[in-house]
């Protein structure tokens, strides 16, 4: 199989965005605040939103299944308060679940959390529980910067995050560390903020001892790990200067990277630097980079081609495409096994 561990519902029906606009308007005019029941999206609308988009591209590129979560840039945890985020997360998570119910062999649901700046992360636990127990979510997205580019939250190694980790460990569910929209004009959302966050979180993990407290916690750092593989020597040296164990012992038992790197030299570098057991196939289609690369004639996010051209031994490539995801996402493995795959 080929499992894409990083997909977002970027093509949701327009009614979802219209509901969100009303919700935001309601922050200044409460009379305009919609209820959850005001959002009406039928199954046929869901089918029309994915069949000519994600499903078509998955078929064209030979991707069997995608781990499917709400659109990352739409999480926008900086908007409103905890109630705002809770209502929004509940709706977005429900839609991803419904898509997975319509196409159970093509999509597995992952959930966003109702994070809000300055709010105790423990408030996210009920939605995490609901999505795992009711929707069968195989993962969650964890935003290390709910402020939207101002970085007001403590590092992910801070104990305030521990209630989320405790529940993830209990359910044996991994978290993909994924920020949302940047409202800081210094940081472009997908070109800077996303990659900055990937790099920043890795360094937080190097500095801390999170996995001493949670030895079975698994975190996926997307977009190829940001700058991490490219500056692996710097991180190794910093770990030494900080008195930390070698990175292979300190973080690579718990931290994984995906293949959302959109050119061949970048994928080659990722595979050369990071052990392939720590790399999971992903494309993040249809996402931040949607155009065709004029140098190759292929879409930038057609990452399967880069992975296959990297020259990995067959067993390692199988690990990247399937085995590693089934290991890091045990509930996904259980789902696939139940389906006879």
TrEMBL record:
Protein name: Amidohydrolase family protein
Keywords: Lyase
InterPro entries, sorted: ACMSD, Amidohydro-rel, Metal_Hydrolase
Ranges of residues in domain Amidohydrolase-related: 3-330
Keyword Lyase: yes
UniProt keyword annotation of Lyase present: yes
Gene3D superfamilies: Metal-dependent hydrolases (3.20.20.140)
